[in-house]
Amino acid sequence: MLVAIIVFVIAYALIIWDRFDRTLVALGGAVAVVLFGAVPATEVFGLIDLHTIILLVSMMIIVEICSQTGIFQYLAIKMIRFSKGSPTMLLVFLSLFTAVASAGLDNVTTILIMLPIVITICKDLKINPIPFVIALTFASNIGGTATGIGDPPNLMIMVQSKLSFLSFIENLTPIILVILPITILIFTQIFKKDFNAMKIDFSYINQLDEKTAIKDKPLLKKSLIVLSFTFLGFLFSQPLAELIQRIPGFSGVRYDSTTVAMTGAVVLLAISGLHIERIIKKVEWKTIFFFVGLFMLVGSLNYTGVLQLLGDYVVTTFGSNGLLLAIVILWVSAIASAFVDNIPFTATMIPIILAIGNNPASNMDIAPLWWALALGACLGGSGTIIGASANVIAAGVLEEHGHKISFRYFFRKSFPTMLLTIVISTIYLVIRYYIL
User: Fold this and answer.
1) Interior CA angle at 172 toward 166 and 173, to 5°?
2) What does residue 70 show for φ and ψ, rounded to 5 degrees?
């Protein structure tokens, strides 16, 4: 137990310090818990949640094939034309598109798709991309909060809590529909002076033609069909699973979001006509291996009983006061996720909530605790430049194009707005789950 705690704390500190590659740190920590005897080598691979890994890889494959069609560029150009050269309207349209895309895809993939487009547009229009990129990262984290696959923390919660895809929409989308327009309005005011100083090249806007963005119409049709069936599978995975298990001989068949995503990825790979090797290479394997190392690292705390002790302590401290516990989880998750990547924090909290649910002394409904964790981790990640993977990726891509966002600048523009989203979320949790 002591070895697991020491290795975890050191790995966590190195991730916060951000001087070493976080994937290397996570994998190094996983190796350390085995070498120093916290977890036997024969047990450590069992700590990896393969359902989360397969779901993430499958969605990356589907999104990569869709991106080959040019559909994302088509939609982006449409919004630029709708904005008619207004930086404020451009921020609104791009933020809305990013939020919606992040809800259906994942926010990291959405940012990777949107950033090159936004940077190219701003370069041609000769305007500063930083305000748009900050707003987009915020929008991607908000949009990703709305569904079970939009943000890695939600993906991890959905898989390990056994909550359905539809339950995320029912419980999180309503408050996101309130938070999103408020934050977009705030950012239009935050960057009002920047926008007023911008001079737009209208000749470039008039030259844009969204029809030329679509590169492969047959593949686009195939992608949209598979994507539609995949999302329908997500929406109805729970009732379909129950229906299938009633069929004689199929009672042991597993049908969940992972099965749906994997089926969609395999079908689209088969009918796309693209080289599988090229698509597989586009998967964000660095992120995948970070998850692998993280599951081993956090799993060592669970394996040695550390998280069970923490869960028992929380139950002892808060007793059956679910309201107070939900608020604490929401705010602690938000503040912690702002300064520490929300993925490792979520991976740490999930077993604790499970332990609370499994403790007979708690006697509480833990469903609101999952929603508190999801809102806190996903929205809190918007607070700083290192709070979410999407933020880190955005900062890196911008720096490659000669635009550096400092930690202090990002914090000043985003952290107060993030706190407002948590205040709104607190009111929502209290009213929906403990008053109504």
Assistant:
1) 80
2) 90, 10
Contacts of 18 (CB under 8 A, 6+ apart): 386
What angle, rounded to 10 degrees, do the helices at 130-145 and 367-380 form? 170
CA distance 271 to 269: 6
Give the helix, strand, coil percentages of the chain, each rounded to 5.
Answer: 80, 0, 20
pLDDT greater at residue 425 or residue 52: 425
CA 263 to CA 254: how far, in whole Å? 13
- 260-316 tens-digit pLDDT: 889 999 999 999 999 999 999 988 888 888 889 988 988 898 888 887 777 677 667
CA 31 to chain centre: 26
- Going by C-alpha positions, the residue among 353, 347, 277 that lies closest to residue 53 is 347
- In the structure encoding, which two tokens stand for residue 203, read together? 């000749």
**Least confident among 79-88, 89-98, 218-227, 421-430:** 79-88
Distance CA 172, CA 270 (A): 34
State the burial class of residue 128 (Cβ atoms within 10 Å of its Cβ: 0-12, 13-18, 19+). Answer: middle
28 with 317: CB under 8 angstroms? Answer: no
Neighbours of 135 (CB within 10 A): 27
Residue linked to tokens 């503040």: 335
Alpha-carbon dihedral 337, 339, 344, 346, rounded to 10 degrees: -10
CB atoms within 10 A of CB 236: 15
**CA 259: distance to chain centroid?**
20
What does 220-269 look like in DSSP terms, one character per residue? Answer: HHHHHHHHHHHHHHHHTHHHHHHHHHHSTT-TT---SHHHHHHHHHHHHH
pLDDT tens readout for residues 235-259:
777 677 777 777 777 766 667 778 8
Structure tokens at 103: 């809800």
User: For residues 154 and 177, what is the distance between their CA atoms, to the nearest angstrom?
Assistant: 17
d(C-alpha 119, C-alpha 403), whole Å = 10
Return d(Cα 117, Cα 119) in angstroms, integer.
Answer: 6
Please report the pLDDT score of residue 436 as a whole number: 74
Token pair belonging to 245: 């298990």
Place of tokens 């990002």: 410
SS3 per residue for 287-337: HHHHHHHHHHHHHHHHHCCHHHHHHHHHHHHHCCCHHHHHHHHHHHHHHHH
The C-alpha atoms of residue 216 and residue 218 are separated, in whole angstroms, by: 6
